[in-house]
Amino acid sequence: KNIVILISGRGSNMQAIVRAARSEQWPCRIAAVISNRADAEGLQFAAQHGIPAEVVVSKSFATRDAFDAALQSVIDRFEPDLIVLAGFMRILTPKFVEHYAGRMLNIHPSLLPSFPGLATHRQALAAGVKVHGATVHFVTAELDHGPIVAQAVVPVLPADNEQSLAERILVEEHKIYPQAVKWFVEGRLSIDNGVVRIADEP
Ligand code: GRF
Questions:
Q1: pTM, two decimal places
Q2: pLDDT at 183
Q3: Residue 70 located in a structural domain
Q4: Overall average pLDDT of the 130-152 stretch
Q5: What residues are labeled active site?
Q6: The domain that contains 29 carries what CATH number?
Q7: How many structural domains is the chain composed of?
Q8: What is the mean pLDDT of residues 117-133?
Q9: For ligand 1, which residues put their CB under 6 angstroms from it?
């Protein structure tokens, strides 16, 4: 299976997926890494690891539709079976999302459906929740609302600030995102009435 990974910055989730795919020899190829920012740090990792890297600069497009159309044409050159959003900080148009229905995953740093949107760790601290975490989900038109594939939970400690919480959760992101992508490439994920089913290991 061909995987295309979209990033906007550091790309640590992308790195975790690439490393796991290679070391565990998943039945897939990381076909490309695409960034909407030319200065995304993750592009260097892609280049160093022999992964085709592309940049489609979002801010040089006048509309979301124009950007998404350009992005889609670059993505589709790689004939992807799966699109992985890994810290890709763009809201996508319904048309784009529909084109990749059932084959686009995202990671969101909260226990969805709590705290969709931005600044999730700040939201969690303000709400006083005692546990927080991360969610891998299929992407649907409604932001941060698609069928849930995997979640990880961490405690919120009295001394936490946004950064300490983000660090504790990132460690877990690097475990659940590769796991979810692996399930997908093994053909084990299906969606039944909006709920993800994970088939047993063959
Ligand atoms: C992660 O916390 C991800 O959940 C969020 O943005 C961060 C991206 O980190 N959407 P990285 O680029 O994968 O290092």
A1: 0.97
A2: 98
A3: yes
A4: 97
A5: 108
A6: 3.40.50.170
A7: 1
A8: 98
A9: 7, 9-13, 86-87, 107-109, 134, 170, 173
Residue 114 assigned to a binding site:
no
Pocket test for ligand 1, best of 107, 135, 154 (most atoms within 8 A of CB): 107
Using the predicted structure, report yes or no on whether residue 202 has a pLDDT greater than 80. Answer: no
Asked if the structure places residue 185 within a domain, the reply is yes
Which tens digits make up the pLDDT trace of 160-182?
999 999 999 999 999 999 999 99
- Whether 48 maps to a domain, the answer reads yes
19 annotated among ligand-binding-site residues: no
Residue ranges making up the domain that contains 102: 2-106+134-150+173-198
Ligand 1 atom nearest 86 alpha carbon: 13
Ligand 1 atom at minimal distance to the Cα of residue 89: 10
ipTM above 0.95, yes or no: yes
Q: 90: annotated binding-site residue?
A: yes
- CA dist., res. 117 & res. 68, Å (int): 20
